[in-house]
Amino acid sequence: MDEVSMVRPTKIIAIGLNYRDHARELHMTIPEYPLIFMKPSTAVIGSGDVIVYPRQCRELHYEGELAVVIKERARHVTQADAHRFIAGYTCANDVTARDLQRLDGQWTRSKSFDTFCPLGPQVVSDIDTAHLRIVTRVNGMIKQDSNTGNMIFNVFELVSFISSIMTLLPDDVIITGTPPGVGPLEVGDEVEVEIEGIGVLKNRVVKE
User: Fold this and answer.
1) Disulfide: which of 20, 87, 113, 121 matches 69 by Cβ 3.0-4.6 Å?
2) Residue 25 sits in a domain of what CATH number?
3) Whose CA is closest to 148, among 28, 33, 22?
4) Are 75 and 147 within 8 A, CB to CB?
5) Residue 79 contacts residue 157 (beta carbons within 8 Å)
6) What does the pLDDT read at residue 1?
7) Model pTM greater than 0.70?
């Protein structure tokens, strides 16, 4: 286990609509291939750091996710070999300015503000991610409660697919999609993402 504070990604690759139960919630068709977007490295904060509610935003949302940390340079990796390129796993929160996402019609601004990618509390390597409970709480109340077994594309499929498009570098992070139940955050809220076998990522929301 390594401290997440030591992770310095060059990029964060995120996956949209990767939980079957989330797709059902949204009445959307299961995608044929992973839907990817990116967040900048400057969005990364650790557990215990604050999420800043931007002045531009009127509707801030949490999205609890499993994160994959890359161990070594990966390009055109097969699914069978993908495990060799993974340093470990941690919790993530794909914080999103939902109103800006709708306004822009694409996701870059809404996903990219500083503090919009909390990671932590630690990177765990010796874990099977096939069936892990993932829970998001806001002020102690459960908002998301699912299992990684509901993922459409597993972590090895994601590493293989993404590495067929771009080179993954050491410390790069893949956040693997969120389960159903995403919703709002307000200034003063404490949000927790807990994944079985990894721990609890905790952050408080403050006004910019």
Assistant:
1) 87
2) 3.90.850.10
3) 22
4) no
5) yes
6) 47
7) yes
